[in-house]
Amino acid sequence: MLTEFLSLLCLGLSLGFEDEKKNEMLPKPTLSALPSNMVEHRGNVSLRCQSHFQNVTFMLGKLQDSGYRQEQRSTGHEAEFLLTHLEPKDAGMYFCAYKTMVSQEWSEESEHLWLQVKDNDDGRGAPAAKKCKII
Ligand SMILES: *[C@@H]1O[C@H](CO)[C@@H](O)[C@H](O)[C@H]1NC(C)=O
Ligand SMILES: *[C@@H]1O[C@H](CO)[C@@H](O)[C@H](O)[C@H]1NC(C)=O
């Protein structure tokens, strides 16, 4: 009973009843991190967003920063957002969406991807690493 209730609730939320601008026709894309979602301090990562459609505009957003937004057009059905020189502040939950020429509306958002930036590993202990260990 509870499970049924929860899945109905989740369905309602994922259809975006609270945000009518979302396009219910576009299935959510898949977001993955290459080579890994665990990145060295000052390292690079590529966040790949894949949709079922070609020739779309992809966007990358960050849950913790509503002002964060990258967009990229692609003639294929995926786009790679390269993030370089990662700092601890870049860690967090990322998601992507896309829109087609026809829809002009963003698709449902992908699952959130947790990007982790490892503590400084040069052996000297960066301020950010110390801060984390006090907690
Ligand atoms: C990260 O990307 C930058 C810019 O593309 C490049 O100069 C640098 O060598 C890359 N670093 C690593 C560790 O791949
Ligand atoms: C992709 O979209 C552009 C418009 O931005 C259009 O001119 C082009 O024909 C489209 N290509 C395909 C393969 O649909």
From TrEMBL:
Record SUPFAM superfamilies: Immunoglobulin
Position of the signal peptide: 1-16
InterPro entries in alphabetical order: Ig-like_dom_sf, Ig-like_fold, Ig-like_Receptors_ImmuneReg
Alphabetical UniProt keywords: Disulfide bond, Immunoglobulin domain, Signal
PANTHER family: MHC CLASS I NK CELL RECEPTOR (PTHR11738), V-SET AND TRANSMEMBRANE DOMAIN-CONTAINING PROTEIN 1 (PTHR11738:SF180)
Protein name: V-set and transmembrane domain containing 1
Organism annotation: Canis lupus familiaris (Dog)
Gene name of this polypeptide: VSTM1
